[in-house]
Automatic annotation (TrEMBL):
Stored InterPro entries: PGR5
Name this polypeptide is given: Electron transporter
Family matches, as PANTHER family: PROTEIN PROTON GRADIENT REGULATION 5, CHLOROPLASTIC (PTHR35709:SF1)
Highest classification ranks of the organism: Bacteria, Bacillati, Cyanobacteriota, Cyanophyceae, Oscillatoriophycideae
Organism: Lyngbya confervoides BDU141951
Length: 65
């Protein structure tokens, strides 16, 4: 779903800039996930399990590039 957009963006920006942008986006996303889990009382281990499950589902569905 988003993979084609990511590939196009990567080729347009160049490898170095893309990696930096990707790192910033991942860090921001991680902060949001942590804040939501803290508000809901989800502990660190369970949060990590949810993140792994989402990553694996993203790979299966072809959402990761």
């Amino acid at each position: 779903m988003f993979a084609p957009l990511v590939i196009i963006l990567k080729s347009a920006m160049g490898q170095t800039q893309f990696i930096k942008l990707r790192g910033k986006a991942i860090a921001l996303h991680s902060k949001v996930i942590t804040n939501v889990c803290n508000r809901l009382g989800i502990d660190r281990t369970e949060r990590q399990n949810y993140i792994r499950m989402a990553r694996d589902n993203g790979k299966i569905l072809g959402l990761l590039a």
